[in-house]
Design goal:
Blueprint (H helix, E strand, L loop, with lengths): L1 H20 L6 H16 L4 H12 L6 H9 L1 H6 L1 H31 L2
Helix pairs in contact: 1-2, 1-3
Length: 115
């Protein structure tokens, strides 16, 4: 398990490094996740130990939301003052995500149906 966590953290570190060096607007962990995905695609499979570790981490994912909840409570006054832009951003980003997902799904479905 320690080896798998080390692999996950190394990919996160690689993502953070790339994000900082190239001054990308994408968070390092997201880049690291993409790099890990690419490495697993090239490898052709997910090692059993990595799969088991990832599953264990996902089982306890709710614990990772505790700091976010504390942050919300810490900045409650600011959130109360700026609730309208926050709501607009949440609704707009949700609608954009739905639009993009449906467009991609439609594109893949039409490619599959054609001979």
């Amino acid at each position: 398990m320690l080896e798998s966590i080390t692999i996950l953290l190394l990919f996160q570190l690689a993502g953070e490094t790339l994000s900082m060096l190239l001054r990308l607007p994408v968070p390092g962990p997201v880049i690291g996740m993409g790099l890990l995905f690419a490495a697993l695609v090239v490898r052709g499979s997910v090692p059993h130990a990595l799969s088991r570790t990832a599953h264990t981490l996902l089982q306890h994912l709710a614990l990772l939301f505790v700091p976010a909840g504390v942050g919300v409570m810490l900045h409650f006054r600011r959130i109360a003052d700026e609730w309208l832009p926050i709501v607009i951003a949440l609704v707009a980003s949700t609608m954009a995500a739905i639009l993009v997902a449906s467009t991609v799904l439609r594109a893949f479905r039409t490619d599959r149906d054609s001979p």
